[in-house]
Amino acid sequence: MSCFTFTLRLCLSFAALALSAAHAQDAAAPPPAAASSPASSPAASTEAAREALGKKEGDVDQAKVLKDTLSATDKQYSLLKAGKRALTYDLTYSYIGQQLISASFTDQTLTQFAIQNTRGHTVTNTISADYGVRDNLTANLTVPLVSKYSQSETFSGLSNGIGDISLGARFQPFALSRTLPALTATGTLRLATGRSPFKTIEGQGLATGAGYHGVTLGVNASKVIDPVAIFGSLNTTLGLPVKHLSQTRNGQTLREVHPGPSVGFGIGFAYALSYNISTTLSFQESISARTRLKLVDANGNNVDTKTSSQSSAMVNLGLGVRVSPVTTMNFTVGIGLTTDTPDFTVGMNMPLHF
After folding, report:
1. Closest by CA position to 96, among listed 346, 347, 341, 348
2. Mean pLDDT, to the nearest integer, of 249-275?
3. For 212, phi and psi rounded to 5 degrees?
4. Among 354, 6, 351, 33, which Cα is nearest to 178's?
């Protein structure tokens, strides 16, 4: 419920109470007498008036009505209303630069040493569609279009294609409260619709997806302390194994990939500079367990190995600009804090109206 609606209802309630009190007094007052009776005394008239104006059994307690009016609120949620639809467009650019050292030893003697500089540019256009199933339940469909350009000493190329499509839902178990934070449970199923990194041919293409299906469960919390909104999130992701692969790299053939689980969290705040401008500052981190790989070497022997664990962290700076009563454009800049994170990202988000 908006502050305006709550204030309007409160004013109407006070007006109703005033009219009710006036009507009660008019009904309770005795009719005027044509002439004073000599038998009636001032004490008797006072007692009769007090009894007539006093509270009778069954009368409505005005204090109770006022208390109920102030405490009664409709259940309100921050998600889409039931039956409502929304489209959102996201544009994100990310850059990552790496230096890879390749070294080979034979009988403890260095026989090969090389440093490879790799630079990667990724532009992602994402369309998200939301539908309000209920006032506290929203379904979501996300379709990304990915363009990647990579440049190194051994390969330079551009790849365009669809990314990993996601199906998700957001659920608010409790209505909004003036004292408690708003809680939202989220669930996302990521489909491996993009070009898999486990199926690309070395030097001939770039991946546009993760290569495996994944399920993410999380919870978000937010609290408005005017003019600041504080928010945080916690989530976990489980990746489904990928089998029947046949990718050859460095004389070995990849057969199976078993992704390790990951845990992520984030925290931040938004500050309203005015009715049309707001700023955000947030931090997010994700820690992924080791991924198990099953390979076959040149001699036909099975080899089981694990990658190292990964930790990605980023600080995001945002600016929101309200360009119309129903349209707010958001701009973000992310700064990578670890080697497993892009060096920086730049993004823009806006709703679409048709």
Report:
1. 341
2. 92
3. -150, 155
4. 6
